[in-house]
Design brief:
Blueprint (H helix, E strand, L loop, with lengths): L3 H13 L4 E6 L2 E6 L2 E7 L2 E5 L2 H7 L5 E4 L2 E7 L6 H18 L9
Helix pairs in contact: 1-3
């Protein structure tokens, strides 16, 4: 599996590119949030990301990705190698999870 430090560095770089993202460390766990909504959590078992349920379902059919016990909208990604393909998926899923954490306009799609 990818070393945790490389995965953490990639997540920090992704967070720096997105507005309003905060991170919080609690022991071995680092989480990222936007507008008070946690959307990514780095644990010893990889990174868990909160996506739209249909996207999360499709994501679980990609390499090194599984469902998360956090719920149907969460995936766990623990790449064996953090290569270009893994980085692309991680960056896209992190950005999507950040957008999903944004507040929805009143009366808008939810």
């Amino acid at each position: 599996m990818t070393d945790r430090q490389s995965l953490a560095a990639r997540l920090e770089a992704a967070a720096a590119q997105l507005p309003g993202v905060t991170s919080e460390a609690d022991g071995d766990i680092v989480s990222w949030a936007a507008d008070g909504i946690r959307f990514a959590i780095l644990t010893r078992g990889g990174v868990e990301l909160r996506l739209d349920p249909p996207i999360a379902d499709a994501a679980t059919r990609t390499p090194d990705t599984d469902s998360s016990p956090r719920g149907p909208e969460w995936i766990r990604f623990n790449p064996r190698v953090l290569d270009a393909h893994a980085n692309d998926r991680l960056d896209a899923w992190f950005a999507l999870a950040r957008r999903r954490a944004a507040p929805r306009p009143a009366g808008g799609p939810g």
